[in-house]
């Protein structure tokens, strides 16, 4: 039984093909796991922010006028907001593409449930709800909830707001 160079070459190609196929499957499984973890993280964050309880009607109404406003300063390609639009801050303000968010942004880079602005201990806080493209505060990507101050610029997708 004589093994030629051609036979060895074919064997190596077969092994490489099998390796590439398994590597491709590994990448697919990794993406699926990441997406699953992101959605469960998003659900945990929302549940923690809202304490997994229904929001009383008094919290859905606008907060007092002196408590803060979000002013749109850049619209990106969103058609649901216009530059200069003003949103009165509410005690709990989900922002994203979904129709039941307080601020609905149809920008290509905005997730369904993108970020949450909430009043805690007399101060406004913003948190990213495991969005794909992140939420930015004064040009820095949010890794954890941060307090907001007057003049801060919030970036969600290509849309930018200023807190007043």
From TrEMBL:
SMART domains: FHA. InterPro entries: Cell_Proc_Reg/RNA_Proc (IPR050923), FHA_dom (IPR000253), SMAD_FHA_dom_sf (IPR008984). The keyword Endoplasmic reticulum does not apply. Residues 93-142 form the FHA domain. Gene3D superfamilies: 2.60.200.20. Keywords: Membrane, Transmembrane, Transmembrane helix. Pfam families: FHA (PF00498). It comes from the Bacteria. The keyword Ribonucleoprotein does not apply. The chain crosses the membrane at residues 6-33. PANTHER family: NUCLEAR INHIBITOR OF PROTEIN PHOSPHATASE-1. This is FHA domain-containing protein.
């Amino acid at each position: 039984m004589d093994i030629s160079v051609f036979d060895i070459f074919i064997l190596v190609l077969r092994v490489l093909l099998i390796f590439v196929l398994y590597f491709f499957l590994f990448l697919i499984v990794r993406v699926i796991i990441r997406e699953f973890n992101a959605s469960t993280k998003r659900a945990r964050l929302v549940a923690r922010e809202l304490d997994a309880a229904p929001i009383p009607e008094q919290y859905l109404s606008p907060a007092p006028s002196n408590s803060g406003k979000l002013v749109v300063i850049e619209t990106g390609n969103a058609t649901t907001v216009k530059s200069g639009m003003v949103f009165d801050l509410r005690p709990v303000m989900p922002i994203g593409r979904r129709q039941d968010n307080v601020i609905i942004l149809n920008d290509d880079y905005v997730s369904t449930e993108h970020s949450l602005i909430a009043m805690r201990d007399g101060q406004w806080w913003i948190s990213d709800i495991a969005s794909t493209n992140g939420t930015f505060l004064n040009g820095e990507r949010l890794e954890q909830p941060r307090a907001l101050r007057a003049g801060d610029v919030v970036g969600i997708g290509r849309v930018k707001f200023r807190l007043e």
